[in-house]
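Hey, resending since the last one bounced:
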Amino acid sequence: MTVALGGDLTIFASSALEARYQHREIFGELCYGQIGLPPRALVIDAGANIGLFVLFVKRQQPDATVLAFEPVPESAQVLRKNIELHHLSEVSVHQVALGNSRETEAPLTHYPALPGNSTQHPEQKQLQQTVLARTHPARWVERLHRAQTISVAVERLSTYLDDHRAVDLLKVDVEGAELDVLHGIDARHWPLIRQVVMEVQDLDDRLAQVCDLLERHGLQPAARPAPLLDPDVRTHVVRATARCSG
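The structure tokens again:
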């Protein structure tokens, strides 16, 4: 389906509800902040879903190169259609999940009504469902989270990085697999990463672990509550910049 999101922006989406929410989150609330990118920037989008963040980046810096990673086949197909619809160049789609080791068939829980919530860690969605059920009918919440298990390929991010090209922005929104993505970066590639923005749900001390890992690799992180989400879902946006870049 096509969804009109206001202004001149129309996109393909598999869930109009989620597309409108993400548009408000990324374009309205600027959940990833004011992102400064140099000309001909290299951007990694881990968890690209249907491409709203890709569009956000390309509207700021049309000549940016974007490597978009989306493991869910349906979402990756919609992502490709949006790239074509908006005549975006220098965007490559990789239909894999990113993790700390390569796998050919890893289980992933896919939510057709909320594809951007698809996850390798479905047990972590229980808190979100509990909080939503406080203000929405239980049957509606259950329907949104009706799931199917699919198999996806997993690759390490370093497989796709050039030893001699800086990563101007690494964006990570992978529904519980944040540390896995970061552990998939080789030591030699960390000095190339200038800026990170990522969504982190603070379960099992994950927020502190993410910030500590970023600090150990020369980045200075700061966290703030994610906009639009109930604070009880415990989700934060972490932004980190390389110390040498100021």
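The chain has one domain: 2-191.

Sorry for the duplicate.
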